[in-house]
Amino acid sequence: MTFFLPETVAGKVAIGSEVRLVLDAVPQYVIPAKVSFVDSTAQFTPKAVETTSERRKLVFRSKAQIDPELLRKYRTQVKTGLPGVAYVRLEATLPWPQDLQVKLPQ
């Protein structure tokens, strides 16, 4: 999943940092992932982002990758390109909040 980090936090995010993905189509699930890319060049927020004030800010394009084993396990349910929200944990020693604990289909 591609997401955008504000310039104020982009420098704090390392490749491999933990991410939680919540997809618009299935908001009851929380999917674990890891940061796989953070662009080295800032850009203005894409027009698809909600508000004009948000679009004026500089951001860094980033990507989160789901573990390939997890993708294989749920391959019949996986759909590419679904919109959602990526939550990045900046401090690895802090636990995820309860609402961002991993929740996958049974």
From TrEMBL:
Cellular-component GO terms for this entry: plasma membrane
Stated name of the protein: Putative efflux pump membrane fusion protein
Organism this protein belongs to: Candidatus Accumulibacter appositus
